[in-house]
Protein 1
Amino acid sequence: MPLKFKLKTLGCKVNQSESAVLSAAFRELGLVEAESGENAELVLLNTCTVTAKSDYQSRQMIRRAVRENPGARILVTGCYAESGAQDIRRLEGNVTIVPNLQKLDINHYIRYNNISLYDNKLNLGSLSGSPSVLNGRSRAFLKVQDGCDNQCTYCAVWKARGRSRSILKKYVLSGVRSLEQQGVPEVVLTGVHIGFWGRDTGEGALSGLVREILDRTERIRLRISSIEPREVDDDLICLLRNEERVCRHLHIPIQAADNGILSCMGRSYKVEECLDLTRTLAQEVPGICLGTDVIAGFPGESDSIFEISLKLLKSSKFAYFHVFPYSRRSGTVAANLPDQVTGKKVKHRAERLRRLSARLRNDFYRSQENTKLHVIYEGSSTNNMNIKCLSDNYIRFDIPAEGRTPGGNGWAVFTRPGNGQMCNV
């Protein structure tokens, strides 16, 4: 009987990409993924430590895996395996910590039929385009960079992930070409600090990598994941404006709309240049969707600072926010800063930011009504009469299925009758 495994993932697109590669590696070795409710002999848990809540969720995931898989070997990796190693060791069960930097060299921790992942030459360390780097049937996450050289005062991830490291261009190109050959319509280029791609290898800038991918492929659509404000260069803007296969969507984490708070966070830019960038992008790339991250209640954020920040964000060209209530992390510089904001205020400010985000998203949707958009088909709706679409500028809506299948792509006109989001082709 083949050994059965389970793989659970929390956190970012980088984690999801790595988990997909490991899942394919297990299958290539002959392991079989356990069905829902079925006991597994090997469980790999890919954890997250971006917030205190993520730490809690990671611990719960470990406890659940031990409880639901009696006698299984539990391998815990990911960022919480670094930051919470002592807490993990206190948990019951046959739990082994796999350091984050050894995640893709996991052969040191598990062998099956006397074969290791490394011996099987799956080239995991390069992430060289394993066909498993898939999210369902329509999109793929491909990691092109890992680690971070910034040391933001609130963040524990840079300690868990290590220094910035680029995946060599030849492996990235191989990966994208492999995905295109499989018929995958979209690949998301992802990393912990993707704008640092190429700095350590001397292979150029991210915009150059995107241009070469376009030159070496024919159909596949490219989406760029979270990128810092100062790393959106003129060449990248030109690609967004002129290349149909580059998605008109950027997520640019501002984190705060106050220069004093940004300085305390250890961020290297000013609010003004970030907002100027959004205005430039909106002007140069019609229809572009811009998202951001905002931390609510960082130490030193007074009531007046928050109100002014809210007004600045309201006047920005952002279409949505990912809002993070400030999470006081032990071992970070920010945990010892004065003027910590009370939990009640943090929660209230996060709610107001989310309400503003919802209004800005609706405004963006209204600006795109009756617009023809390039979409990929992500999956069927519950009644199978419609199919779910994702546009290049990050709008999700349904259109009549009419023979369309997940994994395909096409053009659709975005409309909003009634309370729904429908599309007439």
Note: Residues 117-135, 418-425 have pLDDT under 50 and may be disordered.
Protein 2
Amino acid sequence: MIERNFKMIQTNGVRLRTVVEGDGPLVILLHGWPQCWYLWRHQIDPLVAAGYRVAVPDQRGYGGSTCPPNISDYNIRTLAADVAGIAPALGYDEFTLIGHDWGCVVAWNTALLHEENCTAVMGLSVPFWRMTEAALNPPGMDDQFWYIRYFQEEGRVEAELEKDLERSLRILYYGLCADAPAHSWMKQLERPRSSGLLDALPEPDRLPSWLTQEDLAYYVEQYRTSGFRGPVNWYRNIPTNNGITPELEGKKFSQPAAFVAGAADDVLRYDPDWRATFPDAFEDLRLLEIIDGAGHWVQAEKPQETTACILRFLRGL
């Protein structure tokens, strides 16, 4: 049994099951795919102890939150409005936003779309990118498996992942962590386009060091509740997200910002030149930290180091 203070927050036409704890300035933590609020389990208590009010939602489509059926219900403007509505629901005008993976994408976009209320933003694992057609169909990879392209076909990946939730999550969490052989996630490109996702990733013989059997069981229960359609629908909006946010093209972040990632995170390999171009999007980038020994799930793989980076950024605001 997870002992946390959950609230059902009404925002933007959905109800988000949200851990809300502590008192002080509001910090919202956003998970990505395929996760839920529980990704931040190691950060909540230290942030509360440091004097912050922490809100950690299951985002739209996940866990105990509303899971609308339509693809368009998960476009980036809608996801950002969900997050922006958490603060007034808790009695706040302003908030700091920290996101990971797709939660990081939502954090970046929320900071740009709601800059009058989002006063600082921190991203984990996914640099700020305007995702173009190349994210769906990387040049020269027409015959290779690529998960984002695979996700576009409705129902296929849902059926694959929901067949055995425990096995699916075990493979996904392992494939992107530092415990796996180097670049295990990117080895999917060695598979033919007709492959499934799980076939393209290594299957571990034991859980990674940072994930207990109890942790995995909790995640399985969340996906037994929500399924994968909502979470995968986030990816199905990639072709249209830029078109519905034309005002963000070339826009810079005015707020204090930070970025942290694991040194072994394959997502950083999507753009080998990201370090050179990423800082140009920010007027006040205060922290850019790469944590050794961590892969994609940096706050779970290296919780103390990640929490220290978060607190350093927050205390400087």
Note: The mean pLDDT is 97.
Protein 3
Amino acid sequence: MLSKKTKYAINAMLFLAKRKEHGPVLISSIAEEQNIPQKFLEAILLDLKNAGYLNSKKGRGGGYYLIKDPEEVNLAEIMRLFDGPIALLPCVTYRYYERCEECKDEETCGIRDVFLQVRNETVEKLKASNLAQIIDRESELGEN
């Protein structure tokens, strides 16, 4: 399940992507518009800034803004940043591999094979879903 932190990060990134051409946005504005607790949002935005997705400007007219194109930011990246591995088993993760304690033979493990397929399809779908596509989907759904 997606953590609240990741869900809030995605919502904040979408909010900033939609306002990319309008300059920096105050944390309080993002928090209010997206119904995210401001203190929690501050930590999330700082993590996103440290990861190279956002930047901030201090003073009048300041706030946070997206420094990557919305087409370049996919859901897999955001999820891994906040929740770690996407896989359901440690033996099928891409960046966080760990051998399962009870496993006798990974090569012939049917359980591992099923969860590897699930992970691969999930990651493929998440990598194919970037901020720009989500914004487009929301626009299309709003027209119906």
Note: The longest strand covers residues 54-57.
Protein 4
Amino acid sequence: MNDDSELNSTDIGMTPDEIAKQCAKVMSAKDEASRSLGIVVVDVGPGTATMSMTVRDTMVNGHNLCHGGYIFSLADSAMAFASNSYNRVALAQDCSITFTAPGKIGVHLTAHAREIWKAGRNAIYDVAVKSAEGEKIAEFRGKTRTVRGTLF
């Protein structure tokens, strides 16, 4: 198979949803960074992923608010699971985040990543991070590039 080609779901006898869920299972088993932050996979599909975490007291900065790096990590993990949902290894190549409200201790955050553009080996993902009450905490945009290899 050419490294630049898309893996066809019929090539491995699975639907696109089944491929996405298997990719998430494989990635989750190895993702110590997300696990250590309490980030969990809520849902995954082709080009999408929803992940969540609760802000712990060890995640706050000098203002007693969630450090932006933890929010960025949640959004980045959601993009990673969305971009790897096709069983092609995808890596982040550029990411930015805009914080719109503070995350507070005990708040449960959810990041929903969705693919907004994909061509060849490149893709762009938007990730919305919200509190359990629906308050927007951050908007994240990331660009990915597929490299050699598959997840399974």
Note: The first strand starts at residue 40 and ends at 45.
